[in-house]
Fold this protein.
Amino acid sequence: MYIPDEKIIVAFNLSGVRTPNTKDAFGPEALEFSRSNILQKTVRVEIEACDRGCNFIGNMFVSNTNLGTMLLDAGLCSVFGPAADRSAYCDELYAAEEKAKEAKLNIWKNYVEKVAEPTDGEEDTTIRGVKEGASMEVTITEITDAATFYINRNEDANVAKVAEVMSKFNEDPAAPSEFELRKGLVCAGLFSDGVWYRVRLEGWTASGEWRVQFMDFGNSDLLAAENLRELPDEASSLGSTAKSCFLAGIRGPTKTSDHFENAAGTFHALAFDRTLTAKIEFIDKNNKMHLTLTPRTEDVEDGDTKTSVNQILVREGWCRIVERPEFKLKQYIKGLQSDEDSAKLARYNIWEYGDVSDEEDEVVDPAKVRFDGR
């Protein structure tokens, strides 16, 4: 790129996008697209940074149109998240990529959204057949913190199947027997209420107990080997019915916060062991759902409004909106901004001492701190 005023030539890289190599599929087409639009032409640039190789990094505009957006619109490049998220044109870049994906243009011609498959010993968070924007009735089975929880989907046929086979098992629990205990194994575990439930073994502790997760509820515990029993295949072969989810667009206080317990307790009072309507706002790369929870229409008294649990927790100052959300949640979060502003103004709960950012709430692992404090 020649800069007339300085009489110099510099190397320039587009910010926030990544094009295929010229040897890759659609690499030559991407190169030709850029050549045809900018070679030997006057352009306007905005410099964001300079890398170690003295290459300028920024945005280039041809007739007031961002070249990065033009490439994305044509399906000839993809968004480079770390840089795009810092860019002033972040929304524009992601929107152009989504448009090309939907139209299956060029590099997205054979694109299929990846679904994470759980490996042995990992929790299956998948709910087959659900898509972003869909609604379903769910029951909250476990609350981890003010924005993380587990659900049972009421339409899931496996919920009734599991209840039936475990009821039969509890009528005549298997006698203690020798069977191999290993990480990832599904077996029966005796809970403190004296009932056997399905558990997945997560690991062996130094004290001789097993860390387990109750597959159909989401809670975890430590169980001695004598409180574990082998399950028949009809019970162990069914997948987990408890699915880990997040409240869309918000985050609760961390465990080190004075408000952690009360925030989780408020969420518990609003949602635990209740049937709610859940709208899927976003499904992340780990296949976990980010939901808006609202009371069912039949549970709302005349004259009351259907205010979501997400909105109540933000309005009462128990949670705050995510500062750097996923692109698909940005518009959703704007709808919660006024609720957070009201909570801040009133100094409710987490805002009692003023503003708090995501960085201030991060907990640094002591093992990763150097002797000089870094």
Summary: Residues 115-121, 358-374 have pLDDT under 50 and may be disordered. The two ends are 39 Å apart (CA to CA).
